[in-house]
Amino acid sequence: MPDFHTDAIIVGAGAVGLACARALALRGQQVVVLESADAIGQGVSSRNSEVLHAGIYYPTGSLRARLCVAGNAMIRGYLAERGIGIDPCGKLVVATSAEELPRLEALYAQALANDVPQVERITGAQARALEPALRAEAALLCGTSAVFDSHGYMLGMRGDIEDAGGSIALRTPFERASRDAEGFVVRCGGAEPVSIGCRLLVLAAGLGAQAVAEGIEGFPAALIAERHLAKGSYFALQGKAPFARLIYPLPVHGSLGTHYRRDIGGVARFGPDIEWVEGEDYSVDPARKPQFVEAIRRFWSDVNEDALVPDYAGIRPKIHGPGEPQPDFSILFDDAHGLGGLAALFGIESPGLTSSMAIGEYVADGLIGVKG
Ligand SMILES: Cc1cc2nc3c(=O)[nH]c(=O)nc-3n(C[C@H](O)[C@H](O)[C@H](O)COP(=O)(O)OP(=O)(O)OC[C@H]3O[C@@H](n4cnc5c(N)ncnc54)[C@H](O)[C@@H]3O)c2cc1C
């Protein structure tokens, strides 16, 4: 017997879990968010680039393409309405040699096919007129790319959930869920373990998604996507920020490439790179600096390597291994796993932060029907 009932339990208080909880709460559902950490947004959502992506990279029609383009617009609107920090700086994706031009053209075609607004193909000279320190043969200028205060965004969503009568239980790990006639009985750990009954259950546990899915009675083991970890390290630049816009090279396998950004506090950083790892170690190895310098020199020849200092790292919750094609976000409803009332999310890596609000609506639509 559960200790009490609610309409919906969301496992994970990262950007995605909060957005799912907010969407359900704003549709009249009583929500409880379970979070094992002692604060919201301390997982993958606290170790990223805080970039609102435009949506240019992803296969047309994929969830990543659709939810990124939609999420970008939704979050921009939300930040403006709430007065949360954003630098609408835009981004330049640069081809730094003639050999890279065909790949830049292909990316431009992909952006157009994805209906990404405000994307322009510009020459190297036009790019240098915008950013004089830049090396570029040609570039894409993406007007909707931006840097924002992701923690302010998550705090805003927390407030919305609580204003709608929902609650966020910190230091409360999901342990397991069984089925009953009403839906699910979720056993939570922590200092005061309880069992909560609910009709709807959302698994938005980031790097913990596979462990949580294994604890759900009846969840088909074959649908639990294998977890692969790809670490991304950042180096900060001491001194004056060299560019106003985001500067990205062309993407590499599994990553958008070691890029430049100036966060809303004014700190200039480079990263993330990509390193396939076995465990969750967030230290930044200073020995990676030469690879950073080489990557940065391609688009900024004046970089002073002494000004680069190891900063922080994040880990991508991937569901593909090195060399394998990158799959779409995996968002599974009962047509896939057969458990009515459950949405299970795996592999919500980039552009998961940008897509989060659109993922919330998509999950709410899938669980309780499309908004009229
Ligand atoms: C290096 C890097 C750079 C990135 N840059 C960008 C970017 O610039 N723009 C962008 O759009 N995306 C970016 N991303 C992707 C983006 O950060 C993620 O897609 C997004 O933050 C995922 O959010 P989430 O809520 O799914 O996961 P998380 O933020 O990890 O949230 C999951 C939560 O679940 C909790 N949890 C886990 N297990 C349990 C349990 N058993 N019980 C209770 N709680 C549990 C965790 O503590 C955590 O708080 C980047 C990712 C990385 C790694």
TrEMBL record:
Matching InterPro entries: FAD-dep_OxRdtase, FAD/NAD-bd_sf
Superkingdom in the source lineage: Bacteria
Pfam family, one: DAO
Entry's Gene Ontology molecular function annotations: (S)-2-hydroxyglutarate dehydrogenase activity
Family: Belongs to the L2HGDH family.
Record's keyword terms, sorted: FAD, Flavoprotein, Oxidoreductase
Signal peptide residue numbers: none
Record domain FAD dependent oxidoreductase: where: 7-365
Protein name, UniProt field: NAD(P)/FAD-dependent oxidoreductase
Cofactors that this protein relies on: FAD
Gene3D superfamilies to which the protein is assigned, alphabetical: D-Amino Acid Oxidase, subunit A, domain 2, FAD/NAD(P)-binding domain
Listed SUPFAM superfamilies: FAD/NAD(P)-binding domain
